[in-house]
Sequence to fold (947 residues):
Amino acid sequence: MLTSKTFVKKTKRGGVMKIVREHYLRDDITCGSANCKVCDINSPKPLQKEPQNRSNSINSCHYLMPDTNVILHQIDVLDDPAIQNVIVLQTVLEEVRHRSIPGYKRLKDMLSNADKHFYTFSNEFNRDTYVERKPGESSNDRNDRAIREACGWYVKHLEQSDVKVVLLTNDAENRKKAVDEGLTAFTIQNYVKELKGCSQLLDRLAMADTNVPLTNSRIQFPEHLPLSVIQKGIKTGRYLQGSFLASRDNYLEATVSVHNQEKMVFVHGLSHLNRAIHDDIVAIEILPEEQWRCPSSIILLQEEQKDKEEEEDIENENQTSKNNIPVELRQPTGKIVGIIKRNWRQYCGILQRSALKESTRHLFLPAEKRIPKIRIETRQAEELSKQRLVVVIDAWPRGSRYPQGHFVRKLGEIGDKDTENEVLLLEHDVPHSKFSEAVLSFLPKMPWTITEEDYKRRLDLRDLPICSVDPPGCTDIDDALHCRDLDNGNLEVGVHIADVSHFIRPGNALDKEAAERGTTVYLIDQVFPELLSSNLCSLRSNVERFAFSVIWEMTHDAEIINTKFTKSVINSKASLTYAEAQMRIDDTKQNDPITVGLRGLNRLAKILKQKRIDNGALLLASTEVRFNIDSETHDPIDVVTKVARDTNSMVEEFMLLANIATAQKTLQEFPNCAMLRRHPSPPSGNFETLLKAAMSKGFTIDVSCGKALADSLNAATLPEDPYFNTMLRIIATRCMMQAVYFCSGTTSEAEYLHYGLAPIYTHFTSPIRRYSDIIVHRLLAVCIGADASYPDLLEKHKTQSLSNNLNYRHKMAQYAGRASVNLHTHLFFKERVEDEEGYVLFVKKNALQILIPKYGLEGTLFLNAKDLPSHVNFVYQEESNTQTCGEVVFHVFDRVIVQLSIDRSNVQHLKLSLKLVHPEITDFSVAAVTKSENQEPPVKKAKMSVK
Fold:
């Protein structure tokens, strides 16, 4: 059967277009029930014949039919194993897809889970269930009517069986109409409350009414403006739209990154923050200039949130002190007037039990510092208090001090390393599920061998003295190098990169999975994912491997004569660590082809690096450590600070050179669809911390351009303190913007610059780790005629969309890696108390931020503990950026000795504690630990170095 609609549409040019939409209706769409004897017996029947009945309110077996809002708001309940045999209408599925992509993906996962017995019924194409929209009827009312129509059809269709169909809707009007039409309908709350043996499912119910504040609560926040008012205000310029970024150091402060505007807007105080949560898209109103201020120097962590009176005291104190802020330091300051889009997700954390023993209302403390505490109701508080949990936010009423949410699931015991790793992965949205059979089906079948046809299509480089140089324990070897003399007196230098794109073909399940995951995530004791990385693609020694090679002819002064790109077959002659390669270079007795080649590469690399520095290359610094892991327990037993050798710099220089050469080639051939990487110039305001820190030691840093900054950093040295320059570069690193991938056709050429590195840059050298490099390999292969193109590769908007996902995945991978270091640092100090050298990195109003070079970590040394004697009084001088107590004055870069241990005052939330040992302040500093006092580490077993 065919139905059609005809209507006219006005075009942009003022013309009229006649549009006819046809809609096909069928009478052979099956119901999916094993009870049905009418529908096609060969069609899928996921709905069980005798669905298990757990309800006290419905006597017979039944199927459930939820409406759209039930699925959107109560998806955690529907995901529970107790909920089965659910009919998801096409109407509902489409609405969910339009309103929530994460919700849609979860629903699709449930539909594909055979154990859940969920079935999609195409009611919009069934002749008996399709309904036309009536004149004047809203889209929502039409969809509600379509749901009731489909429910009624199922009731009649299955009337010969003993199975009923229950409509789940929280819409009172829709539920009343359903009952009037003779249907069985419940709210999701009433249905769940009547389920036998499912009391724990009550904890997973989201709030029924998000507008109802807590009992006896008073209004604590301003009302959010309606979206219509916000949109009008944005058009007139009264309000600005931006991303809400909560502070990590002070839960009373945040900034808003305004769309298409360089400068951030500062927000301070609970009332002005107005229930916005990190990552929300908000509307902000700029305050009058006399109310502008800047971030305070007070560290206020959210797990130590004050009560309402204390918060008001802090805000009043800051309000008084703001008059002392120099005008030039004040930032545009505003207040949140409305929420444009909530970007809430599932949050991991711990339960903070109520002081009232019988209470079912408790607070949840998220692991992410920037998320406020969440109020939840649970009847399992005693059990959950020892667990890491997942909770979601349902609403944040004006009358509630905290947002309100519900419990989703347990992750495991607090402190268990597997549990903590799971928290880490979930918090950073790292995909870590097992690969599906569809994905695995596209892997090469083993044993895999190179065929004669492969040799004909590639340049044979198996006889060259190629080797790889990597960190200890590296198994996913992306790159290898060679250097040899040419007959004309010049040098041939090659960078050979694993040809991963040969194994991952465009558009298949493996390719789509790689594009979604984006990048390998390196944790201290795990790698996600490891597919292809350690075998077929890894350029291990003494095995033949496919490579994509960049080969230069160079003079001995590192001048490039020509560049060649080619697909190749190589046989690496050695897999070396940085230390092994350095020993070969330094050992004058070794003169084999590999060693001679390494010496040539090292000499050329020094010339290339000096040229980059002369041209204004910016050399920054960061703290990097490696843990030695017990091979049985997988606990950290030793920490090794990264040692920088010439060979590290050697590899880095040639990887940079290959990336630049590839960027130039692909941009030349594909000016509108090359995948490049840019590093935006930081706004001048980003350098405020660096400028103040350098000035404290008498240095002036020029930040007018990358070269000026590089020259200033190179000149800022203290002979008596060699580590000073490193710390200055660490601070400079934090002033930088995030480097991002982009499509050349979507950005002006003026914005291509990679700050301090190169005018044109991309990623080509790590395709095992990064999907971006696979795209670059494909573009380069098309450039040299080694592979065919495909439509998506040359579509700039799809490349930009892919770049956006890669930028997100890359950022999350970085954060996850750092979090893994912090986790293992905590595990390392679990049974230890150690005194270590540190440096003051930042001076705050109530604390010092201390950098511990040995462990590559930062810690907070608080100066305002409540139990300190009255004579221990720290005075903060904002102008000089110092803390003074008696005769002791702390400046940025000062060397201190601190005692590191685990703070066990909160058994649910162990954290690293710093106490001052030197300089000594009476009744504040602690005594140095001796070897007898310090617990020795466990007996060391076989070590396993982890990248």
